[in-house]
Structures are given as C-alpha cells and as structure tokens.
Amino acid sequence: MHTRIGWLDSRHTFSFGEHHDPRFMGFRALRVINEDRVAPGQGFGTHPHRDMEIISYMLEGALRHEDSVGTGSIINVDDVQRMSAGTGVLHSERNASDTNPAHFLQIWLLPERKRVAPSYEQRRFPLEDRRGRLTLIASRDQRDGSIGINQDVDLFSAVLDPGQSVHHQMKPGRHAWVQVARGAIDLNGKHLDAGDGAAISEETELDLSASAAAEILLFDLA
C-alpha cells in the first residue's frame, strides 16, 4: 500500500489511513509500519494520538518533534524515539532540514495497558554498536540500555555487511516480525528485499543472512 502526496512518499506494511484491507491489520501487537520519506521543510502538522506506542526509527536526515506534554527534540540517524500516547497527546513531526529529505520508519504498537500517562523517550544506538549483531533497542523492561515500551515486545536492530549473518532463538509461544529497512537478506532460506516484512510463528530459531548490505528490525512478540 502506497500514499504519495506532494511532500510525502509513504509505504504501508499494514492497513493505514485510507488504505484498508482486513487481511492486513497488523501482526500480534504490531499495528503499523510506515516507511516515510518527507520532503525538505515539510512534515506532519499537529495531530492527536491515544493509547498507542509510537516508535520513530531514522534512516536518513532528521525530524523535529514537538508535543503537547512539552517535549521538543531533533531525531537524527541512529536515534530511536518512543512516544507513549496513553490518555492522549498532540504532536508534530517535520523534516528538520530545508534542503535534505528525511527517511524514517514510523512504527505503532498496541499498548499492554491503556490510559497510561503520556511519556517520551529518545536514545542513540550508534551504527557500530549494531553492526554484525542484533542490538536490543526497545523492550518492556528497558534491559541492556533499551528504551522502555508499554508492551511485551523486544525490538532488535542489526546492520549487516554482505555475507554477515545473525541468529535469534525463539522462546516457546513467541512470534516474530522481521522488517528489512535496507538491502536484502535471507531469512531461514527465504529471500527478503528492502521494504519486505515477514511474520514468523511456530519457529524455534531465526537465521538472517545479508545477501547485500542490510539494515533490519526484528520484533520478538508475545
């Protein structure tokens, strides 16, 4: 699914906005993955959210974030931002540059608990810390320096050179979603290109090998 309006080029993994398909309403707690490209000086004006965990994952450029709870920040490449909308929040996201495009993944997760107080967290995860390994960037318990999230989800990021591989052990009853942000990988023998995603259930091990330089996200979900 694809939205293109002047300043925005957005590709939707799941149903979003005017693009509704009851077969693609999310996976487990994962509700939205939008790959957004925002023109210089443009962006999303002030709009509301409620009862949603929203993660912004930068791929190129920078975003300027402002919200009704007094938070203002610039989200750069290697930064991950989490906003818990909870009881309700107004926010805006705009390209922080007047000359360069911004490219990011907008991720929504259904919260484990509703009507929590709105909150915000942003942390940097340097490229070198994610190269050749799955690095935990978001989790319910904030372990290993990850940002906190109001849901039983572990979110990992990895940057792989061609031929590099990573391995993830799945616990019984868990599920996974793999999103290819850049490049191409083979996931348990299945080929995925940039923009592709895969839902995984009833597997005990995940083997991810880069067939081209790649950046991936792996969601370990209840």
Annotate the secondary structure layout.
Layout: E1 2-5, E2 8-12, E3 30-38, E4 43-49, E5 53-60, E6 62-67, E7 72-76, E8 79-84, E9 89-95, E10 102-109, E11 119-124, H1 127-130, E12 135-139, E13 147-148, E14 153-160, E15 165-169, E16 175-187, E17 190-193, E18 197-200, E19 205-221
Parallel strand pairs: 12-13
Antiparallel strand pairs: 1-2, 2-3, 3-10, 4-9, 5-8, 5-10, 6-7, 6-9, 8-11, 12-14, 14-19, 15-19, 16-17, 16-18, 16-19
Q: How much is the average pLDDT?
A: 96
**Strand tally:** 19
Task: Specify the helix fraction band.
Answer: under 10%
Give the SSE string.
EEEEEEEEEEEHEEEEEEEE
Overall body shape:
globular
Ends apart, CA distance between termini: 26 Å
Q: How much beta, percentage-wise?
A: over 45%
Give the low-pLDDT segments: none
> From the structure provided, what is the oligomeric state, counting identical versus distinct chains?
single chain
What structural class results from the helix and strand content? mainly beta
- Largest sheet, described in full? 8 strands, mixed
Rg value = 17 Å
Discrete helix count: 1
Write up what this structure looks like:
This protein has 222 residues and is an all-beta fold. The chain contains 1 helix and 19 strands. The strands form 3 sheets. Strands 12, 13, 14, 15, 16, 17, 18 and 19 form an 8-stranded mixed β-sheet that branches. The radius of gyration is 17 Å and the shape is globular. The relative contact order is 0.16. The model has no long low-confidence stretch (mean pLDDT 96).
